[in-house]
Amino acid sequence: MSNTIEISLRPTDGTLLDQHDVLLLDLDGVVYVGPDAVPHAAEALRGAVRAGRRLGFITNNASRPPETVAAHLRELDVPAADEDVVNSAQAAADHLAGRLPAGSPVLLVGTTGLRVALEDVGLRPTHERHEAVAVVQGFSPDLGWRDLAEATHAVRAGLPWIATNLDATVPTPGGPAPGNGLLVDLVARAAGRGPDVVCGKPERALFDAAVQRLGAQRALVVGDRLDTDLQGARTAGLAGLLVLTGVTGVRELLAAAPHERPTHVGHDLRSLADVHPGVAVVREQDTVSASCRGAEVTVDPHGLRVPGGEAGPDGLDVLRAAAVAVWAAADDGHALTGDDLTAGVRTVTDSLRRPG
Ligand SMILES: [Mg+2]
């Protein structure tokens, strides 16, 4: 018995940019990494704006206020107005403003961006645990043990605890480093309970706010993380482009769970101007075959093979076919694991190239 279906990775009519009016862009690992622009990002985004598209910058990183982020983007030649930046600190502050009287003192476990967001909605950030009526925790590179201890005491005392996001890592020029999720986890383990509310990606609040603010009809989420950007896109019912300039590589993409799979994959933001292919899948007993233009990949109990190795115009067609084949096999109860996954990742990685 065999059947052919289209799963995940969607074909576009024309370019990806042709199909969307607003781009909801993640920042770290998509537009910049630390202080530096991701190669080709600024040029691609200027092209999108010239073509009449609006840009929204959607970030879980609450350590800097939107004006600072927008100024940084403009320094990198990315067209950005202050109000185009929406972060999880704003979402957290909005949430607290909806449940506390104006002027309420909130224990601030975070940095400038979170402080400004609280002040903007009429709340009073404090470092005095004894006067606080709630705790808000966001990423800061300057958090110390004393801050985490104060947060723990407040959380143990039963104060409402809002986390801006649960990203496990933040990208840095030297590689991934501990993110807010791990710092929240330290407090949770010490206090014996988790946060009451999480505001950032993959929760949909941030996307909903951005869609509303930018008046989007057909928004495209662009991100480098499966467990925040792409899962959030699915949660919010939006198409999602994964770019390979951040924390997600071939291995992570192949191992993606159903709820975090992207609808499109590109090397970097230049792929906004590409026509994206779909992937066709055929399942026969314990073998899955997937084809993407001239690329063909099979996954069976012996592992992953590439009978058709045409990488296509952007060099990613083998990766696309492999991802969908591995996902379909996993969904059928034959996940590629261990040495088989490692060998498959090596085979697919060898196929990657981008002309120019
Ligand atoms: Mg990112």
In short:
The protein has helices at residues 41-50, 66-75, 88-97, 112-120, 145-156, 180-191, 205-214, 226-235, 250-254, 317-331, 338-351; strands at residues 2-6, 22-25, 32-33, 36-37, 54-59, 85-87, 105-109, 124-126, 134-137, 161-163, 169-172, 175-178, 197-198, 219-223, 239-243, 264-266, 280-284, 287-292, 295-300, 303-309. By secondary structure, it is α/β, with parallel strands linked by helices. It has 3 domains: 2-7 and 275-349; 17-60 and 202-273, 3-Layer(aba) Sandwich (Rossmann fold), CATH 3.40.50; 89-198, HAD superfamily/HAD-like (Rossmann fold), CATH 3.40.50.1000.
What does this protein structure show overall?
There is one protein chain. The protein has helices at residues 41-50, 66-75, 88-97, 112-120, 145-156, 180-191, 205-214, 226-235, 250-254, 317-331, 338-351, and strands at 2-6, 22-25, 32-33, 36-37, 54-59, 85-87, 105-109, 124-126, 134-137, 161-163, 169-172, 175-178, 197-198, 219-223, 239-243, 264-266, 280-284, 287-292, 295-300, 303-309. It is an alpha/beta fold. The chain has 3 domains: 2-7 and 275-349; 17-60 and 202-273, Rossmann fold (3-Layer(aba) Sandwich), CATH 3.40.50.1000; 89-198, HAD superfamily/HAD-like (Rossmann fold, 3-Layer(aba) Sandwich). Strand 17 (280-284) and strand 18 (287-292) form a beta hairpin. Magnesium ion (MG) is lined by residues 26, 28-30, 223-225, 246.
